[in-house]
Write a structure and sequence with these properties.
Strand order of the largest sheet: 2-1-3-4
Structural class: alpha/beta
Oligomer: single chain
Shape: globular
Largest sheet: 4 strands, parallel
Strand content: 15-25%
CATH superfamily of the largest domain: NadA-like
CATH architecture of the largest domain: 3-Layer(aba) Sandwich
CATH topology of the largest domain: Rossmann fold
Number of helices: 14
Number of strands: 12
Distance between the termini: 48 Å
Helix content: 40-55%
Bound molecules: 1,3-dihydroxyacetonephosphate, iron/sulfur cluster
Length: about 300
Amino acid sequence: MQKPEFDAKYKEHLQRKILDLKKKRDALIVAHNYQRDEIQEIADITGDSFALARAVTTAKEKVIVFCGVKFMAESAHILSPDKTVLLPVEEAGCPLADMITVEKLRRKKEEYPEAAVVCYVNSTAAVKAESDICCTSSNAVRVVRSLKEEKVIFVPDKNLGRYVREHVPEKELILWDGYCVVHMRLTREEVIKTKALYPTAEFIAHPECRKEVLELADYTGSTAGMIRYVKESPHKEFIVGTEKGIIYRLKRDNPDKEFYVPTEQFICANMKLTTLGWLARSLEKMVYRIEVPEHVAAKARKALERMLEVG
Ligand code: 13P
Ligand code: SF4
């Protein structure tokens, strides 16, 4: 095993190399809140899916390096087709996005021709192209409320869909049977046990968690929503109901507060694929370029732009 001083030096070396390459390539590095600490440290922008989608639309740089998963890089390319969008690790996907296909969605639309289709951004570009409007976990309730249709096919995350249904009872939501494999790992029992260990801590959770877990939450929201909530809360201790990567930012913004994870399994392997080494290689070799064919992108862009208008 390498000595820690060596690791620190190597990390510094790679970070310096990335910053030099970034300048040379005229690139913007964006990173999701679940990325490794050392990636978040050097990113130009960190945020939730919504903030990152919006940030790329105003970027001045020619190249966007997306430290996240594929659907996020696809959305970046759809919204900014004139830019080069790079995903440092080609295999970084999202199992939730793969739980629906265009063919299956078309069949569902035939079953409910009067319904609007709301598509969580954790989906492929092709599925977005079949949808009326996109949403993220930060605006799903607002997006569904904004629709004139009373019936809504909500895809692909059933937990987020159920959460929206509770907040917009005037609409009829038809839910898809998709879920996030990482958030589904957290059980109600684990939360209860952690609450017993830290009785004064508040429990904050992502809406991709199971219903019985969300019932225990003091706050439910997107990763950016959780970051905001913790900053504004007078509480000093928090049990974090989402991927562990968020703790880097929570600690950075709140050095006087404590954070506990209810399960050590709260790691998204796909988000963790991006390392400093892969990021440096991505900028050096200009890989992997994420491009969405224009006939798909044009339709998906409408759904994404309609979401951005709702805010
Ligand atoms: P946020 O948009 O809340 O950051 O969530 C993205 C995601 O992939 C959750 O698993
Ligand atoms: Fe996909 Fe879940 Fe990972 Fe988010 S945490 S990227 S929804 S697998």
